[in-house]
Design brief:
Elements: H1 5-11, H2 13-32, H3 34-64, H4 66-86
Length: about 100
């Protein structure tokens, strides 16, 4: 199974802890402000719909470019390996 650079980046403690913090803040804001919650829900539905539409439209292009994406992913994974070696802070949550 080939590594996916996006999944690897999202699994870095510095990235995952930042995402978790942002998600908590977002949820807290929605709970605290009913008007903001309704605006956010409309926005979320719009983004989901647009994302689904974009994915359907891009599917033929993605299939055609799959070999190039695999090469780019491989290069990006090697670059991430190098960054993880050179920047140890990537392995720590944001609060550390």
């Amino acid at each position: 199974v080939q590594e996916n650079v996006l999944q690897r980046v999202l699994q870095l403690p510095v990235v995952s802890s930042t995402c978790e913090t942002l998600q908590r803040k977002y949820s807290s804001t929605k709970e605290s402000h009913p008007l903001m919650a309704s605006v956010c829900e409309v926005y979320e539905r719009g983004v989901q719909g647009a994302g689904a539409l974009a994915m359907r439209g891009m599917e033929p292009v993605v299939r055609r470019l799959e070999p190039q994406f695999a090469v780019a992913n491989n290069l990006a994974c090697r670059g991430l390996d190098h960054l993880e070696e050179k920047i140890p802070a990537l392995q720590y949550p944001v609060d550390k």
